[in-house]
Amino acid sequence: MVDEVLKSIREFGRKIIRHWYSVTVGVVGGILGIVNAVFAATAEPRTVPLSIPLWLWLPLLAAGLLVAMFWAFHDVRKERDSAREERDSARSEMSRWSDKLRGALRVTGVSGEPRTGTNGTVDVELTLGLRNDSEWPVRSKFELVYIDIAGKPADKGPLGSQETVIAPNKSTTYGYLTVRGLPSGWHEGEGCFKLTVQYGNTRAPLQYRASWEYKLRFSSRSGKLNVDANPKRPVEVEDL
Prior knowledge:
By secondary structure, the protein is α+β, with helices and mostly antiparallel strands. The protein is built from three helices and ten strands. The model has no long low-confidence stretch (mean pLDDT 78).
């Protein structure tokens, strides 16, 4: 408590000294008045060649101190207002940044590549794509990745809970998730895709959680596996 008071006194003193000209006028007037009063009281005979009346030097001293204190307050007010403007500007920028980042991620699709599995079965390697539609890099982490074909779930492969950074206005792909043991000759069918991702700015903790759910339709066209992904519900975004 005492340290804080002393700190305030030192700061106040520095503010006053910055406006020394106001203090000087009052102090000089006050000193002259005091000298005049002392000299008048001790002089023999009681006469003063230079007479400065009390009503002049005392208000002069008080006015100088008041003006200096006013300017000190004025400086503090300007610093406060400047700090408020900087704070409000930072909040406005953060709000704009947050609104855009909230809807930054978008699923660009799912692709599949059939492979020959064991005992004549078919394995399908799946790749999913995400895009960052914002002007800032986004750090993302998979919370849930689920894909199945005809009720057979894919393994997570190397995805797991890896954390990646997606550059501004760029897309990236993730894989491979593999559905194994589909019947021999398989080339079409239906499936399900669920994805939950935590994401946020690269310089802050992850802020949002987005969840997607799609119905997948697999078909073979010109010897290539085509995957149509139709949303089962709108994307859900929540704050962490």
